[in-house]
Amino acid sequence: MASLAPPVTFKEFCPLYYLLNAIPTKIQKGFRSILVYLTALDTNGDYIAVGSSIGMLYLYCRHLNQMKKYNFEGKCESITFVKLLSCFDDLVAVGTASGRVAVFQLVSSLPGRNKQLRRFDVAGIHKSSITALAWSPNGMKLFSGDDKGKIVYSALDLDQGICNSSLVLEEPSSIVQLDYNQKVLLVSTLQRTLLFYTEEKSVKQVGAQPRK
């Protein structure tokens, strides 16, 4: 007699009030009161990263129950994408509505880890809203895509504090998703999905028909 499958259990998750209460609902700028909208989210075992409409990144440490804030200097613009990575150091990449991309190398209390917050900027290649970010597992490569179809590769040297960026691919429609593994970048756009082989710089389309 075949054994019966265990019953399906529905579990209700309550809102993360401890997180939401640490983020202001509005800020004062001069005589104006500006509402704060949450615009981007990523999580891992260590952090919850939340981007906002005021250009502020809220980073909640799950182990220490602490909220920290990071921002771009200058123009206050909406964050459109955030991507966390835990490797030897903890990293978070942030993209904005105008095409700015920055990487924050976070401070760690563990021995041998990074002791000073550092920021790397992907300079001036994207000119439109960032729609996707993807890390290599070791944190040395970051790929960013925007809503005009541009994909930029950034090589990071965390020890030397260097970030070199270049345009590697340009599609005719918006990038909606990126994923990277073993020298292959998976790219999804509004029209198609493809594999970009980063060593050979060749493209292989997944499927034959364009998306409608």
UniProtKB/TrEMBL annotation:
GO terms for CC? Answer: cytoplasm
**Family matches, as Pfam families:** WD40
Where does this protein come from, organism-wise?
Rhinopomastus cyanomelas (Common scimitarbill)
Its BP terms in the Gene Ontology are:
protein exit from endoplasmic reticulum
Q: What are the leading ranks of the lineage?
A: Eukaryota, Metazoa, Chordata, Craniata, Vertebrata
Q: What is this protein called?
A: TCPR2 protein
